[in-house]
Amino acid sequence: MKIWFYKLKMPLISPFTTSFGTDVNKDVYIFKMEHDGITAYSECVTDENPFYGPEDNYTAFHMIKNYLVNIVKELPDHEQFQEKTKFLKGNNMAKAAMEMLLYDYYSKAAKKSLYKYLGSSRGYANAGISLGMDDINITLKKIQDAIDRKYKRVKVKIMKGKEIEILSAVRDQFPDIVLSADANSDYTEKDFNIIKKIDRYDLVYLEQPLYHDDIIYHSRLAKEISTPICLDESITSPEKAEKAFEVNACKVINIKEGRVGGLYNSLKIIDIVKKNNGHVWIGGMLETGIGRAFNISIASLNDIDYPGDTSPNDKYFTNDIVKNPFKMENGEIKPNNGYGTGIEIDDKYLEKYKVDSGELL
Ligand code: OSB
Ligand code: MG
Predict the structure, then answer these.
(1) pLDDT in the model for residue 107
(2) Looking at residue 143, what is its pLDDT?
(3) 121 phi-psi bin (left φ>0, alpha ψ -120 to 50, beta other)
(4) What is the CA radius of gyration of the chain?
(5) For 192-236, what is each residue's pLDDT tens digit?
(6) Which residue has a Cα nearest atom 7 of ligand 1?
(7) How many Å apart are CA 350 and CA 289, to the nearest integer?
(8) Nearest to residue 295, comparing CAs of 313, 279, 286, 283?
(9) In angstroms, how far is CA 337 from the centroid of its own chain?
(10) How far is residue 205's CA from residue 317's CA, in Å, rounded to a whole number?
């Protein structure tokens, strides 16, 4: 078996601003594994800085290189992978990068498309768009474009002190769209009075208003607002999802495979959401065509009942590193029908954006 890494720096079509900062490039580790005539790929969703969650590209690479590759080498099945990596606390994004490499490998070995390997699929993902903060006129124009392209939900980023300006401008112009807002944990338990004002904008949900690892304050907040709460950052495992429902901290969960340690845990969380009559959708981390193919595959499962942050590749990159980027029709994106994620790597762009590479095994 061989495993290689590629570190890429890919320019984003437009800068992406959240309450925690602005990304101009996508700095990302890609992994390639060859074994038994099968080539598998995955990507790690960490960024250069630990501003969304506690991991970054440097911590993840350390975990992968010095711990995880040796576990991948044994080709554990998906459950065994969880068992064998339990001794490493946290570091879910690093684990997920290796776990998903194995999912691509195993679905290819089974001669199945990943989306069929994962479960019962409707055959397409419902697409929503996530818009970073911008000059408000740019945001309004991007929303009109999104409506024209038939996106099924629009999510805007907000931050403390800017929420009313952003949401009132959006609602004035678009009174009827399916709208949500994501604060990326910018508020605290002292801000409930500001957050309550968000109720008047009729959002389908408010995403992660409070601390990145909190459940209890979200549960208190849920009692004080009528807008449903969606948790993103706080849900880092199936157990965390159970606890969140136990204390009514949320009605909706945004699953990012990276944040929860991979696809196996994502599938468990989907079951937990169903058992609790909640809602669930698949988020995004501005992935390249590789990570995107995993997202679209899982987002196509029947149990995913809300549109995700699952845009086609051309929202992010002029030239993605795949030859078969996704296309959206009527707000729907079909996963690839090839084996595994079905992506075809475009070596030309992989080389062009490469800043480092090497062998891990
Ligand atoms: O909170 O959902 C988030 C991007 C980077 C970090 C956090 C988030 C996001 C997004 C982008 O909202 C979703 C996408 O990939 O389009
Ligand atoms: Mg979010």
Answers:
(1) 98
(2) 98
(3) beta
(4) 19
(5) 999 999 999 999 999 999 999 999 999 999 999 999 999 999 999
(6) 285
(7) 11
(8) 283
(9) 21
(10) 28
| pTM for the model | 0.97
For residue 26, count CB atoms less than 10 angstroms from its CB and return exposed for 0-12, middle for 13-18, buried for 19 or more. Answer: buried
The whole-angstrom separation of Cα 307 and Cα 297 is 13
Terminal-residue alpha carbon distance, the chain: 7
Model pLDDT for residues 278-301, shown as the tens digit of each residue: 999 999 999 999 999 999 999 999
Give distance in angstroms: CA of 208 to centre of ligand 2.
6
* CB of 288 shorter than 6 A to ligand 1: no
Integer Cα distance of 69 and 280 in angstroms: 31
- Ligand 1 midpoint to CA 287 (Å): 9
**Residue 52 Cβ contacting ligand 1 at under 6 Å:** yes
| Helices assigned H by DSSP within the chain | 57-63, 69-72, 78-85, 92-109, 114-118, 136-148, 163-173, 192-196, 216-224, 238-246, 263-275, 289-299, 347-353
256 is catalytic: yes
Cα 359 to the center of its chain, rounded Å: 27
Ligand 1 pocket residue status of 284, Cβ below 6 Å:
yes
CA–CA distance, 155 with 17 (Å, rounded to integer): 13
As a whole number of angstroms, the distance between CA 305 and CA 74 comes to 36
- Whether the CB-CB separation of 27 and 47 falls below 8 Å is answered with yes
DSSP string, 307-356: -BS---GGGT-SS-SBSS---EETTEEPPP-SSBT---B-HHHHHHHEEE
Of 13, 6, 3, give the one whose Cα is nearest residue 311: 13
Give residue 162's identity as a one-letter amino acid code.
K
Name residue 353's amino acid. Answer: Y
Predicted pLDDT of residue 44: 98
